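Comment thread on ticket #2218

A.B. wrote:
> Attaching the input chain for the structure job we discussed in standup.
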Amino acid sequence: MAQTLLMPKATAIWLVDNTALSFDQIAQFCKLHPLEVKAIADGEAAQGIKGLDPISTGQLSRDEIARAEANPNHKLKLSEPKVRVPESKRRGPRYTPVSKRQDRPNAILWLVRNHPELKDAQISRLVGTTKSTIEQIRERTHWNSANLAPMDPVTLGLCSQIDLDMEVEKASKGRPLPTAAELGATLQSAQETERLTPSYEREEEKEKEIDADAVFRKLSSLRSAPKDEDEEDQY
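C.D. wrote:
> Ran it. Output below, let me know if you need it in another format.
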């Protein structure tokens, strides 16, 4: 991957303000036209842009600037980056090892049953199969349908749990929200909830239902018991 200068116009502004480099040297380094660099120096261009120090960003060294200032014919060179960022590889079709290809129909059956919201293209990405195979398993016309058993593709090692969750989340975004009947919910209507009395009122009603005569009889029996015991001691 070829090195590119970070924010060339902002870097040119900093070089114009802080170095004795020629317009041609700055233009060559920043991939700009010399007249554009001259306009920056005259304050006619890039007035709202803040200069960027290429030394602090590690794109240029002080020694390289000093050599270029001493020699007008010297061309500035970018410094070697300290960290190499690997190039991103294009994601192609998922490769399934030969030893696990026999498990793909079982994984497809598991996905069809447990995640009906997934599209055929998503299942193909997860387990590396074809749409015709998915249709055969859906319609039970697969040559080995009688012997298939649903198995989790993550357990089989055909895909990761993160990939599966991402595909399920994508498929769920376009689905309508489930109804109360689908969820099995039995919500009470507003009229029914208004009729319900609070728990503290129920306790008060229970206290009112207690027989007052029974309470007084119990208290009188407790008071008379000590008197009876005193009378027995006298005899």
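A.B. wrote:
> Thanks. Noting for the ticket: The chain has a mean pLDDT of 77.
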